[in-house]
């Protein structure tokens, strides 16, 4: 969890996004339902890259899906579907770990926050799916590279 690792992951991830966007690939998988199980598992392996601090889970899975031959909207949709069990698992594990310190009022608060977060996430997913129909991910790549370079500049200036 070093700032050096995060900076490097941001720059490497941004560069990978640009390379994947520029690569000419046959996107023969048009929907999530068309995806073979083996490719779905391979995309799940890409999700493991998010264990590196500074790596976006959704970017890793979307780029992995594009490499596996999915069309952009299907890749984004699959990435968000893949996030559901991951987020539920992380939430329930955290609640379990902290079960002794959670009061009934705290659980009500968690339920409200969880519900609001879920609704907001659905709205963001809807927006992103519309966005990826008309654009590529180069703007996100640029953001990651600029942020990573800025972080490196701050780190070197210390």
Shape: globular
H/E series, N to C? HHHHHH
Could you estimate the helical fraction of the residues in percent? over 70%
Distance between the termini: 18 Å
Number of helices: 6
Average pLDDT, rounded to a whole number, is 88
Largest sheet: none
Structural class: mainly alpha
Rg, Å, rounded: 18 Å
Q: Could you give the count of β-strands?
A: 0
Strand content: under 5%
Q: Return residue spans where pLDDT drops below 50 for at least 5 consecutive residues.
A: none
What does this protein structure show overall?
Helix 2 packs antiparallel against helix 3 and helix 3 runs antiparallel to helix 4. It is built from six helices and no strands. 75% of the residues lie in helices and 0% in strands. The chain is globular. The longest helix has 31 residues. The chain is an all-alpha fold.
Ordered list of secondary-structure elements with their pairings:
Blueprint: H1 3-22, H2 37-47, H3 57-67, H4 72-97, H5 104-134, H6 138-157
